[in-house]
Specification:
The chain is α/β, with parallel strands linked by helices and 218 residues long. Helix content is 55%, strand content 17%. The chain binds erythose-4-phosphate.
């Protein structure tokens, strides 16, 4: 499973990349606003800065919601860098735009997926990735993880090439369960990636190894 980081913070992206485990980045307008990145030129420059930090797969979301402007905006985003994946919302004009991007070889990530029907529509239109938001489903007392399993099953049944990008991940168990279910990618905050490092027996075991080494080499 590929690990993407879900942030627009350059320092967090760098930290995950430097660990050697990062396969990509997802952003959205809320994450850009959180970093105080506003205005067309600043946003464009920020996407370029993100692309310069990583090897590939930087999702940049369109703001437009009508077909013509989604196409225009998506093409501008794709021109920033070959690493850009144009993130398009799951709406009718978005699906049409994904089809057009796909025929032009522009990679897309269909965002705001909350059921398997939406996932199939985006896949049939040729999306490179679909992003089911499992944490937001959990937030409304619906089982987000079962949606991941359902989509993986359906895509496997029909050989869809679209990758399942599990999004809105809240904690380590979400990430591990997504891997069990066969998601192609999980995008998550830095805290979830670094959280995978932690186990109390690792900490106490290391402490004892170092103490024993010190005793033996005193
Ligand atoms: C990623 O592509 C999504 O925008 C993101 O994972 C949403 O996460 P949230 O539900 O924590 O905002």
């Amino acid at each position: 499973m590929q690990f993407f980081i879900d942030t627009a913070s350059l320092s967090e992206i760098k930290e995950a990349y430097d660990m050697g485990v990062l396969d990509g980045v997802t952003t959205n307008p809320s994450l850009m606003a959180k970093e105080n990145i506003t205005g067309h030129d600043n946003i464009t420059a920020h996407y370029k800065a993100i692309c310069d930090l990583v090897d590939n797969n930087v999702s940049a979301e369109v703001i437009a919601t009508d077909y013509d402007n989604i196409l225009k905006e998506g093409k501008e985003l794709a021109k920033i860098d070959d690493k850009i994946v144009v993130k398009v919302p799951m709406i009718k004009d978005g699906v049409k735009a994904i089809k057009a991007f796909s025929s032009e070889g522009i990679r897309t990530n269909c965002t705001l997926i909350f059921n398997a029907g939406q996932a199939m529509l985006a896949a049939k239109a040729g999306a490179s990735y679909i992003s089911p938001f499992l944490g937001r489903l959990d937030d409304i007392s619906t089982d987000g993880l079962s949606l991941i399993g359902q989509i993986v099953l359906i895509f496997g049944n029909y050989g869809f090439e679209t990758e399942v990008l599990a999004a809105s991940i809240r904690h380590n168990m979400h990430l591990i369960q997504c891997a069990e279910l066969g998601a192609d990618v999980a995008t998550c905050p830095l805290s979830v990636i670094t959280g995978l490092l932690k186990h109390p027996l690792t900490d106490s075991g290391l402490e004892k190894f170092l103490a024993d080494y010190k005793k033996g080499n005193a």
